[in-house]
Amino acid sequence: MADRPQGSGMPEEGTPEYDWLYGSTPRTPPGDATQRMPAQSAGGGGASSAQRPDETRVMPAARREARGSGGQPPGGTRTATAAPPPRPQPAKRRWRPRFRLGLIPLLLLLLVVYLVTVPLYHWTTIDKVDAAPDGDRPADQPGTNYLIVGSDKADDLSAEQRKLLQTGPRGGTNTDTIIVLHTGSGGRTMMSIPRDTLTEVPGHGTQMINSAFALGGPPLLVSSVEGLTGIHIDHYVELGFGSMINTVDAFGGVEICPKQDMKDPLARLDIKKGCQEVDGLTALAYSRSRHVTALSDLDRVARQREVISALGDEALSPWTFVNPVRYWGINDAASGAIRVDEEMNPLDLGRFALAMTGDSQTCTMPNLPAPSDPNRIVADPERAPQLFTAIIGDSEVPKAACTPTGRAR
């Protein structure tokens, strides 16, 4: 083959060999030539598997699972997964008592037990008296009739109370209060009988009705009331000085509404006109005063009913039943100065307490000045039977027969 001229594209003399590029058998390449690495055997053994530190290596492809999950290449250093941030600690709450649903019925049960057992216990401390009279009596009548007697019994007073009232430990020989309380389908009626009423006292002729108590105690007084009115007395309840004072104080006072200024040194009373809260001593003086107003004893019996009604209103207060100290004090004060007839039972006493509360008609027995003594009174022969008959028959009381002082309007 003829020699090619210079510049024909063939490498010139002295230039590096490019036979390896054009497919001819290469000569031993220089040490800095880029070399093709033979494939390594699967076993990785033998001389062909030897690696030189300056060789360019083809790294194996990472597995899809490793790439997708953030895994590390084989043989590489694993990067530690970052720890989750610490959860915020909840603020400490103050301890508060939790009332479970089951606790409420238990408390209600304990309250009911307390409300029942306290009166039953105090019932055992109440004095019982024989108040049933001998001889003929009116037949039983519809409804229930209680005879309420306020005596001057002072043996239930404390030493301090006796000093204030300037009274000794009397046994209760007189009565300033005589009230017939009727309950039934015709409603509640509270009728006062003035202590100066002249009537027949069995075995003693015509006397003031309050003398029956001094002459023969409860039985003779019951007999005298039944003979005067024809009303059958079912139960007898006697209250002393201490009963009024201590019971009012146990309630924390009662409200009275005098219609005028009242100053009665004999009753130790000095109060102003208008509604006001008073303690036990003032309530007693208010109900006993008879020297301030024109009608004397007739006005006094109206004030006695006012105080008794005020006590009934206080007894209905929810605070009476939810306050165990107040509830105990009221029962203790009432039981310490009350006497009842021997036939009365705890249920009868409970009915009496309920009868003392709420609305009721309040009257004084219809009366006229006594012909023989203007300082005494007698039952009005026309209007008094109307009131007595209504109570006996458990029917509505005529308004004309029911007035605060017993006098005709």
From TrEMBL:
Source organism: Nocardioides renjunii
PANTHER family listed in its UniProt record: POLYISOPRENYL-TEICHOIC ACID--PEPTIDOGLYCAN TEICHOIC ACID TRANSFERASE TAGU
Keyword Transmembrane helix appears in the UniProt entry: yes
TM annotation in the entry: 101-123
NCBIfam families: lytR_cpsA_psr
Limits of the Cell envelope-related transcriptional attenuator domain: 174-314
InterPro entries associated with the record: LytR/CpsA/Psr_CW_biosynth (IPR050922), LytR_CpsA_psr (IPR004474)
Phylogenetic lineage: Bacteria, Bacillati, Actinomycetota, Actinomycetes, Propionibacteriales
Protein name (database record): LCP family protein
Region (Disordered): 1-94
Comp. bias (Basic and acidic residues): 52-67
Keyword GTP-binding: no
Keywords attached to this entry: Membrane, Transmembrane, Transmembrane helix
Similarity comment text for this entry: Belongs to the LytR/CpsA/Psr (LCP) family.
